[in-house]
């Protein structure tokens, strides 16, 4: 058995399947179920509500998948945040017309970016976002890669909110029991891999650039989720 003392980052099967592979389609459906069971939507919406001081004009989600996670967050926030321009960035082109229409029905405009987050953030160094969200994506990357990504994100946004897998024995046990809720073989492989690559304690704070290290809040929420919020000092102005 692998110790959970250290992170172990291994490839996840879903990342290497074509978007329309039936195993990938089923695994993304499982991911929507798991986001619900883990409470990711409620946790992320609560963090955004608590840490973003004024309604944002531009919200970037990195590793946004099919966009359904952020749509569910938007359903919780749209009355308080009426006119957000949401940018869904993922390596794969996964956002359906129905999901776009649902965002627009809430008064949010949607832009999709199909790109590697490291390439895209390297090219976008000027501050351009009011907030960046990451759900179940940072754990795909090594500590060195996260350190580099954090330097770039700190230049791009005053606030980062991340909701990631908690690296704890109970979470690992639960991730190995997903047969009970009917997930497919891809999800049953990727879930424990994600927990072993997840976070605990102040591991993400330690990777945040020191010069931007103001207002870091990192803690466990519930049984399965590790959260990180970085709020940089700002003049309070929204980004152009
Ligand atoms: C576990 S899924 C989470 C998707 C979404 N946040 C959600 O909660 O439904 C991780 C996503 O990160 C994306 N991803 C992984 N590495 C990436 C990279 N280097 N650049 C952009 N997206 C990436 C994958 O394509 C995948 O859609």
Automatic annotation (TrEMBL):
InterPro entries: Methyltransf_25, SAM-dependent_MTases_sf. It comes from the Bacteria. SUPFAM superfamilies: S-adenosyl-L-methionine-dependent methyltransferases. Residues 60-154 form the Methyltransferase domain. Pfam families: Methyltransf_25 (PF13649). This is Methyltransferase domain-containing protein.
């Amino acid at each position: 058995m692998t110790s959970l003392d250290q992170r172990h980052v291994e490839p996840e099967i879903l990342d290497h399947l074509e978007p329309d592979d039936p195993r990938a389609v089923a695994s993304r459906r499982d991911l929507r179920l798991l986001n619900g069971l883990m409470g990711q939507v409620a946790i992320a919406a609560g963090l955004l509500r608590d840490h973003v001081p004024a309604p944002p004009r531009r919200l970037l989600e990195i590793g946004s998948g099919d966009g359904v996670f952020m749509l569910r967050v938007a359903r919780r926030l749209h009355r308080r945040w009426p006119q957000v321009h949401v940018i869904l960035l993922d390596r794969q082109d996964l956002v359906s017309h129905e999901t776009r229409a649902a965002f627009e029905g809430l008064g949010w405009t949607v832009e999709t970016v199909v790109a590697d987050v490291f390439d895209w953030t390297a090219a976008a160094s000027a501050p351009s976002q009011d907030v960046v969200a990451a759900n179940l994506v940072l754990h795909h990357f090594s500590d060195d890669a996260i350190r580099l990504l954090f330097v770039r994100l700190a230049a791009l946004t005053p606030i980062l909110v991340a909701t990631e897998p908690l690296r704890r024995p109970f979470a690992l046990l639960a991730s190995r029991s997903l047969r009970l809720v009917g997930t497919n073989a891809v999800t049953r492989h990727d879930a424990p891999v994600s927990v072993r690559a997840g976070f605990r304690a102040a591991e993400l704070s330690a990777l945040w650039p020191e010069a931007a290290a103001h207002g870091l809040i990192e803690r466990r929420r519930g049984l399965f989720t590790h959260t990180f919020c970085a709020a940089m000092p700002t003049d309070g102005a929204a980004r152009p």
